[in-house]
Amino acid sequence: MALVDPKKRFVEGINYFGKAKTPPGQIATAKFPVLTYGDTPNISTAEWQFHIFGEVEGDVVWTWDDIMKMPQTTLHADFHCVTTWSRFDDDWTGVMFKDLVTFIKLKPSAKFVMQHAYGGYTTNNSMDVMLNEDVILAHTFNGQPLPRTHGGPMRVFTPRRYAWKGAKWVNGLEFISKDRPGFWEQNGYNTAADPWKEERYG
Ligand SMILES: Nc1nc2c(c(=O)[nH]1)N[C@H]1C(S)=C(S)[C@@H](COP(=O)(O)O)O[C@H]1N2
Ligand SMILES: [Mo]
Question: What is the tally of structural domains in the chain?
Fold first, then answer.
């Protein structure tokens, strides 16, 4: 893992998809702050369930083992929080959304995805973002089980969007035809949330 000088405002270079390594207005940190609205759910992998519903040909409920049998990917990426800190060069392991959807029969009307989480958090993204921007459902962080405070046993991570676009303690994906705001989006956060365009609020 690259060490970040805590006094350094920028990390130079470009990231893996050709954008500035440090998006505008972001400050590098070597720490990993916890940003959670409300309580921290305590869900074992044995009780964890994952619900697929909405614009699909039949709802699905997956167990932990079902997800572990799907193709696993390790993504080396940076993490950008809307509150202006960024963390660089972590390894996130889990199932890419684009691989997960191959196990689902989507209806053509599935144009947006609402993530749902234990505790009630939600966040919305277009299918285009979910399929084409390396969205990963991650259970392992730098080779270790994802800590509970950071969303373990399973969270969504959206490397090309601000971090609120990934639900910690994710327990379902709802496919929808018409976009609808999630938790922070209802509270004034931007729907697109592109860090390189500084789409933070409003
Ligand atoms: N379930 C849930 N997911 C969540 C949040 C939350 O409060 N609850 N906060 C979001 C926000 S605002 C950010 S910045 C990131 C923070 O992730 P971290 O606590 O691992 O740094 O998680 C996102 N996912
Ligand atoms: Mo956030």
Answer: 1
29 torsion bin: left (phi>0), alpha (psi -120 to 50), beta (else): beta
Residues near 30 by beta carbon (within 8 Å), at least 6 away in sequence? 3, 4, 6, 87
Predicted confidence (pLDDT) at residue 138 exceeds the cutoff of 90:
yes
Which of 43, 164, 183, 189 most suits a substitution to test ligand 1, by most atoms within 8 Å of the C-beta?
A: 164
Q: Is the CB of 43 under 6 A from ligand 1?
A: no
Residue 202 located in a structural domain:
no
For residue 125, being part of any structural domain is answered with: yes
CATH number for the domain spanning 154: value is 3.90.420.10
Handedness of CA 201, 27, 147, 138 (dihedral sign): positive
Q: Kindly state the percentage of the chain with pLDDT values over 90.
A: 94
Q: Using a cut of 0.85, tell me whether the model's pTM lies above it.
A: yes
Domain containing residue 124:
47-76+90-187
Tell me phi and psi for residue 120, to 5 degrees. 100, -5
CA of 108 to the centre of ligand 2 (A): 32
In a domain, 27, yes or no: no
Q: Is the CB of 166 under 6 A from ligand 1?
A: yes
